[in-house]
């Protein structure tokens, strides 16, 4: 049962007073304060952009976590390999359906080596043709584990051998000073990757993007009242931040905010995260890392259409980010990296889906990226317990990003200096 009835802007408040709503919200605010101890408000973020803007030319990393285990074989499709069709007779995409990854970046994609992008990834295909998309194949870690929880922990802490209490971005923060805003998570709860030993990344809750009558109602509850206790004043301020975040979304990106799907709330949608990220970058917020997330990749059944729809959300969001930054001096500074905790098994299951697997592709996008195929494509027949072999250790990808985007020593963050992959052009 909800704590409070839903707000209907077409009706009077009917006894639901500002004080009643704020008191009922105190419990929720207390929980949120524990979950997102590094939470910041929009005014803090915008104020830093005015006082301490990020210099143009400074590289920016946008991390996109695809939660659930993205099917790499349905994303970067090995259409030329007969073993692909044999393993997935009801799921396989045909050579005439995919968006080919051929040309000078990959060489002629013919015969068994022919590959293509899922047909939903039209925007990324455009970036491939422009030389701005890198596909790193066979990325995983040496300690195979099909658990969502353990696998995402490995990817986000960059510690496959033993659990640790810090994330790789958090450890980078520890080496670069005490400013949490150097990394900004779009959402209310920090992921493990953003937790350092001394410094936590900042978390910017999205809230909602109210308009019209909805905004009038929230304005009412956000207005300061001299009779408020300190706790009520803090909760009122959080409503104010929700209103200001909503207002910040509007000028960026009709394209991004218009991408909200019916099954995604404005508080969590990937489109809203993209819109706010673009707004922050254009304003010059002094964040070097942005953390975004898109869930729904756990495709155990009816995968073909559902996975394509999920990839379309990713594609629309990343295309909207590029479009929103078009013409901005910082557009060329942005490198996007999209990854998932594991890939899927090679063979389809009885429900026309795929189960938890191991390695999969990592995608990098941006003007600084060396477009093309990187790393070795895992064999579809030489498997490990039915799973793809890992041909690229994920820490090699992180090493390239740390060196070329964050200008950091990988050994200080990863505990090792992985062999470079050459994914990014030197600045």
UniProtKB/TrEMBL annotation:
Question: Source organism's superkingdom?
Answer: Bacteria
Q: Which InterPro entries match?
A: DUF1501 (IPR010869), TAT_signal (IPR006311)
Protein name in UniProt: Uncharacterized protein (DUF1501 family)
User: Organism, per UniProt?
Assistant: Lapillicoccus jejuensis
